[in-house]
Amino acid sequence: MNFNELSIIQPILKAIEEEGYTTPTPIQEQAIPKVLNGHDLLGCAQTGTGKTAAFSIPILQLIGAHGEQTGKRKIKSLILTPTRELAIQIGESLRAYGRHMKLRSTVIFGGVNQNPQVNQLQQGVDILVATPGRLLDLMMQGYISLKDLEIFVLDEADRMLDMGFIHDVNKVIRALPNDRQNLFFSATMAPEIMKLAASILRDPIKVEVTPISTTAEIIGQSLYFVDKNNKPNLLFDVLNEQTAQSVLVFTRTKHGADRVATHFVITKRKPI
Ligand code: AMP
């Protein structure tokens, strides 16, 4: 699969090429055509899968299709993300993929003076990337109107919940127009995440990618079935048979690590 086969417009294809991307990641391959077709999306994907481009590229294309703007730009897409770092990264991606387009995007987050962010907003933006607290704050002060919004992205929904942002997220959602496209991303799909997704999405397409985890080919693997009580003895037997200079033993808990280490001392066996 090639980016050319995803119905992406030329200015974005050019920017993607300049970024050095040659092939779409699985989430991009699956999500981009669906989002371009106007579908809601339920994306089960972690950071590192290329999910930012999976939503940024079609958003730029869909919003860009409005053509030349007259008058002050209105916010047509909102990307809500839990942390300042993620917000900044998404802002950078939008700038990179949209560098041959005439759209304006900006990023707002808390913990810094609001004035530069307000100045950006007052110049008019098409795409807004925000963390929930600062967004609500500036909405309440009347600097942000979401009544022209067309595409809403909830990024890292599981982290939003973990960080206690659920009420803020719900408040933002209540301020959005009913008629909109929704893209929802979460690394996990626990029941409360699914409940939140169901309250936001309409007839979504589900896209799920798991991080690629491969084992190194030069590492041999063996599996031993053993009773819990016999595990230390088995470990020592296995280690005695090996000629390795140094060995790393993983345990599930730190107490487990202590028990293994203590056993080495008690049995007076020399750790390798
Ligand atoms: P994300 O999962 O969105 O945080 O992206 C992880 C990293 O992958 C970022 O540094 C992107 O620049 C990079 N990336 C995204 N899509 C591609 C692609 N198709 N080819 C190569 N790198 C990519």
Short note summarizing the structure:
The chain is an alpha/beta fold.
The string of secondary-structure elements, in order, is: HHEHEHEHEHEHHEHEHH
Mean pLDDT: 92
Q: Which outline best applies?
A: elongated
The percent range for strand residues is: 5-15%
Describe the structure.
The chain has 272 residues and is an alpha/beta fold. The chain has helices at 10-19, 26-36, 51-64, 84-97, 115-122, 132-140, 157-162, 166-174, 191-200, 231-241, 254-266; strands spanning 41-44, 77-80, 105-108, 127-130, 151-154, 181-186, 205-208. Strands 3-4-2-5-6-1-7 form a seven-stranded parallel beta sheet, with helices on both faces. The longest helix has 14 residues, at 51-64. The protein starts with 9 loop residues before the first helix and ends in a 6-residue tail after the last helix. The site of adenosine monophosphate has 11 residues, from helix 3.
Provide tags for this entry:
42% helix, 11 helices, binds adenosine monophosphate, alpha/beta, seven-stranded parallel β-sheet, elongated
Question: How are the SSEs ordered, and which strands pair?
Answer:
Blueprint: H1 10-19, H2 26-36, E1 41-44, H3 51-64, E2 77-80, H4 84-97, E3 105-108, H5 115-122, E4 127-130, H6 132-140, E5 151-154, H7 157-162, H8 166-174, E6 181-186, H9 191-200, E7 205-208, H10 231-241, H11 254-266
Parallel strand pairs: 1-6, 1-7, 2-4, 2-5, 3-4, 5-6
Helix pairs in contact: 2-3, 3-4, 6-8
Bound molecules: adenosine monophosphate (AMP).
